[in-house]
Amino acid sequence: MGTKPFTTAGLSALALMATLGAVQAEGLVVSNWDGYMAADAIDSYTAATGNAAELVLHGTNEEIMGKLIASKGKGYDVVFVSSPFAEVLHNLGLAETLDHSKLSNIANLYPEAMELAHDPGNTFSIPYAWGTTGLCYRSDLLAEAPDSWNDLLVPAADVSGKTTMLATDRWLLGAGFLAKGYSVNETDPEKVGEVRDLLIDAKKTLLAYDDTTFYAKLVSGEAELVHAWDGWCNYGIAENTDIKYVIPEEGSDLWVDTMVILKNSENKDAAYAFVDFILDAKNHGWAAENILYKVPNKPAMESLSAEFLESFPNMAIGAEQLLSYEQLRDVGEGQRLYARTVSEIKAAQ
What we know:
Blueprint lengths: L27 E5 L8 H9 L3 E5 L3 H11 L6 E5 H9 L34 E13 L11 H4 L9 E3 L3 H12 L8 H15 L2 E4 L4 H7 L4 E5 H10 L3 E4 L6 E9 L6 H12 L1 H10 L7 H5 L3 H6 L7 H5 L2 E2 L6 H14 L2
Parallel strand pairs: 1-2, 1-3, 5-6, 5-7, 9-10
Antiparallel strand pairs: 3-9, 4-7, 4-8, 4-9
């Protein structure tokens, strides 16, 4: 994710954003995380289509959602958001129902990318990147390669104090849900309570909660085993080939980042042209090559060299395997339970 701290932590912060309205701009307005597409993508799009466009940045899903809800989507045309948030935009009536006849490059998507649980058939969102969450570790420092979430949550004595976990609600809880064999979207209070207790015990063994520098801790040797998104583990692998990534035997979540055209866009044709521009194999392939994330674009992924895939093995995880993992979904009111539970975990001594 480059400089983009990926988060689907929930919508509780949205009320705080209600005073923030739409941006004021002429031409197409695209909102994305910093570094999540080529630096010259906007200029290249304008050169290719003749459509004036502007990129505005958001730091988190919650930030852009607050603005979109406050403005009812006005002032924005295309937004990059994670799939649970795309689902919310759809449920609020803010996402455009997509006309696939205006997206010729949608044919580049893997068939599996049309089967995503949050939006079967891609009726309101187009997947941009997808991946897994697992364990990233120093193979030269661990006595044995990890293969279970419990290797992180109940670490061996010589690994205790040298582990980190993702702090964002959905992933912190997700590790516990998976370890227990539960759905990553579980909302049963009793099961969530079991996971809370497991994670409170695990907290005692952690070096830190860390969403942004965990791979650097692996590189330095300060950490030996960390909870990681696959792409971010690749940043560590790029610096030290002893760093490896594994999906535990209990599985992973499937996370998906998407592109959504806003229903209140005043530049619909330009918005379709932008999404189609990104779906061009070369343009979409930029993300795979530069932010080291898998993209759901078949010719883009097939263009990656054997040497590249050998260097970053998790980039070769196929679409069929990805779809075997449960996708993170909007859990509605369950998010309140998640937020409260994570607060309890972090406050525990």
